[in-house]
Amino acid sequence: MSTTNYVCYRLPEQKEYVRLEQREGEPVAMKSVKDLNGRKGFVFAPFQPSEETPVWLLQPDSIERKAVGEGDFKHCEEHSNTELKRKIAEYEKLERKNYRLRFGLCKTMFKLGKVSKLVIARHVHEMQYVVGDPEELFLHACRLYPHQYIALVNMEHAGTWLMATPEVLIEGDGLNYHTMALAGTQKMPVDYRPGQELKWSEKNRKEQSYVATYIADTLRPMTKTLDHGHPHTTMAAQLLHLRTDFDFTLNDDVQLGDVLDALHPTPAVCGIPKDAAKKLILEYEKDERKYYSGFCGPYDPEGETQLYVTLRCMEIIERHYILHAGGGIVPESKEKEEWKETEMKLNTMRDVLR
Q: Which EC number applies (predicted)?
């Protein structure tokens, strides 16, 4: 894999993408999201900053805008080795057992009163395909998912990551900002029409309410103005989610890095209460999340900022890849349904390869 430090990203509904490359020097490594104050560039932040996974800021000396185009994607070669298929079957069986155990842990934590929501993430080593050129995969993802934020990050020390994510963390123009509470998931009906409202279970509404309340409570002391709408159905690939939009302006003494530090990670990728949930995630998922459920995008406190949560993503490592996805667990959750939800989310990246 090339060690060139570059990023490609395509905003939702756009027919062009931006390619950023840093040829001089290295991206800046930071210990904390707060260290973004006073800086600008392309941010690639992890779920939890550490020495192994710092917050990276790419400061490009080359900026290109290119058309996504139609293209003719050459699908990745599929392995047909019988022994490999046996290993894949064994791995999937182990992964299923591991998920059941972690789901049971969630239920125990609820009974003990430690948390009221906890996000279980899955990190699946996909071995069925030979990985193609990352930039070709990026363009294919752009064409498959025109309504999502698509990004390819290739940094020498962070690795190569491709994502198709529906969730805004913060976007704005230096004065006016927007974020969203996105939680609750169901499969899209075959006859679904964009803008159509659907019935949502109490479990999904409760999960989404946790995120919306957290965002409102976090932003309120940091903002001059804070407005929000009602939960509504929104589309992401072949899935539907519940979403509440927030628009705000910041207090004069508040910097954008401070807001990001306060918001991230939201309960949509962590849990409630945040500190207790994060502690459990870091203990039981070890270092597997890395940059999954972090955030990335162009960042300029005095100009355009478009930061998205790093969801529905894959990490490309030499000739294979690791898929990342997760789902929020609340006391009403049912294990089989939650497993199916993570499978649907993993399919967002699987479909890029098929």
A: 5.4.4.2
Rounded to whole angstroms, the Cα distance separating 55 from 294 reads 9
pLDDT tens for 269-326 read 999 999 999 999 999 887 789 999 999 999 999 999 999 999 999 999 877 889 999 9
Mean pLDDT of all residues in 34-48: 97
User: Any idea where the domains of the chain sit in the sequence?
Assistant: 5-67+79-353
Residue with tokens 């967002």: 348
> How high is the pLDDT of residue 288?
87
Distance from C-alpha of 60 to C-alpha of 42, rounded to nearest angstrom: 8
Q: Domain 5-67+79-353 falls in which CATH fold?
A: Anthranilate synthase (3.60.120)
Q: Are 281 and 290 in contact (CB under 8 A)?
A: no
pLDDT the model gives residue 79: 62
Residue 147's pLDDT band, with cuts at 50, 70 and 90, is: very high
What's this model's pTM, rounded to 2 decimal places? Answer: 0.93
CA pair distance 78, 80, nearest whole angstrom: 6
**Calpha distance 334→203 (Å, rounded):** 10
CA 33 to CA 49: how far, in whole Å? 8
> In Å, what is the CA distance from 197 to each residue of 93, 178, 208?
37, 22, 15
End-to-end Cα spacing for the chain: 21
Maximum Cα interatomic distance, the chain, rounded to a whole number of Å: 63
CA distance 271 to 260: 17
User: Going by C-beta distance under 8 Å and a sequence separation of 6 or more, which residues neighbour residue 222?
Assistant: 250, 251, 254, 258, 259, 262
**Could you tell me which residues come within 8 angstroms of residue 272 by beta carbon, excluding any fewer than 6 positions away?**
115, 116, 117, 210, 214
